[in-house]
Amino acid sequence: MGTNYRIGIIGLGTMGRNLLLNIASNGFAAAGYDKDPSKIELLGKEGEGKPVKGFGDLSEFITSLEKPAVIILLVPAGKIVDDVIAELQPLLAKGDIIIDGGNSHFTDTNTRVAKLELAGLHFFGMGVSGGEEGARFGPSLMPGGDKQAYQYAQPILDAIAAKVDGEPCVTYIGPGASGHFVKMVHNGIEYAIMQLIADTYEIMRKGMGFANEKIHETFAAWNKADLQSYLLEITADIFAFKDTDGLFLVDKIKDEAKSKGTGKWTTQISTELELPIPVIDMAVAMRDLSKFKSLRQQFSLAFKKTEKPSSVFKESSFKETLKEAYTFAMIGIYAQGIHLMAKASVAYEYSLRIDEIARIWRGGCIIRSYYLELIRKAFSSNPSLQHLCLDPDVGSIISHTEKSARNLVCEAVQNGISIPAYTSALSYFDALTSADMPTNLIQAQRDFFGAHTYERIGETGVFHTEWNQPLAGV
Ligand code: 6PG
Q: Cystine design at 177: which of 106, 270, 313, 372 (Cβ 3.0–4.6 Å)?
């Protein structure tokens, strides 16, 4: 009976296997468990020569672990997590540690923390970002909750995380389910940036008439300079990728997007916290709208767009307009996600350090980009910064790129090209820069039809008016 594995992973899918290999490559002996023998076999092949071992028997797997046992779950979010915990519980001893590394809903994590605490087990939720490659060579890790348990696992987490400027892309996020909350917002931002890039593709192909080669070149060039980001990098690669028949693969892919739910959750929580994140909402809506293929086909016939795109798109300066507009909207997306985290930090008492979150997002994760260093700096020099765009450096980029965002949106709207991420980023900005919004009218309407009362400028208390009464003297 050996007790020699420092850590175990349950779920040997692509993420689980790659994380296990990452752990082993960093010198920690690691055991894996999966019900599926083919995955154990794959791990055996991929892990040859490394201190890893796969198990198909749960109690043998647990017995093989050093005490206290540290077990990372990498299984699909939802009921499966509870099922696995229920199977594990009788085999564990007090003080053992379970880490949920999946994309669990943060409210589920809260429930599990409370339940397992009663059983004397440590449990914490940890966002893991970076996909297959991140898991193998360095993800961004967002652990939150039981600090003592986190500290016990910290040497391993530090070793396996991506590194930027020699610093590991992992930090203790905060109490409770904060790790999973922050990972959810990461994914919301991911959805919105993906939609922004898709909008940019739409402009390039329908407005500017670019072929895939030129789209590839443009994204690749952007990615070399200050717009460097993982999502732009893979997008450039996608536009260069040809299928076995020599045709571009991207042109053969259905335009109906799937999702696993984290974007929708971000939108749901934002409405609950009354903190607007319209570009993320729009990105979720567009994936949903994409599924209405036949309706879209009917609409495209019923409301045909007859005119050719305007010549403005052909101007040589338009590429720069597009790049600046992209910068404007992309910063707005990060700003909205961060604003939501700041609100949640107060509402759920997470005490989030936005500078630290930006720091660990600079490497390993899907939304990593050059701009995260600027964001880190903004919140590090002013931790109580109310909104990212109020940072002087970020604000000057916004001011510098705003005009291009307007020009792009005007041209797209005039030409019937749908670029919802750009338009909602701009509308959000325009509302935010309105010291006087038209919401006085909404207050009046509510009071008119429902006697909901309203407040008056410069006066205290609430007021109700009998709006149907004719005015004296009229
Ligand atoms: C990551 C990704 C990862 C996963 C998304 C996909 O950070 O590594 O976000 O968690 O690829 O959750 O989400 P959808 O299937 O909802 O697009």
A: 106
Tens digits of residue pLDDT in 94-105:
999 999 999 999
What is the CB neighbour count within 10 angstroms for residue 87? 12
Choose which residue among 22, 190, 194, 287 to substitute to test ligand 1 binding: the one with the highest number of ligand atoms within 8 A of its C-beta.
190
User: 3-class DSSP state for residue 443?
Assistant: helix
Residue 366 Cβ contacting ligand 1 at under 6 Å: yes
Atom of ligand 1 nearest to the CA of 183: 7
The structure's pTM equals: 0.97
Output the CA 187–ligand 1 centroid distance in Å: 6
The span from the CA of 221 to the CA of 236, in Å, is 9
What are the DSSP calls for 377-416, one per residue? Answer: HHHHH-TT-S-GGGSHHHHHHHHHHHHHHHHHHHHHHHTT
Element spanning 31, H or E: strand 30-33
Phi, psi of 16 (to 5 degrees): -60, -45
Q: Residue 187's Cα: distance from chain center in Å?
A: 2
Q: Mean pLDDT in the chain?
A: 96
68 cis-preceded (ω within 30 degrees of 0): yes
- 299: its two tokens: 């609409």
Give residue 197's identity as a one-letter amino acid code. I
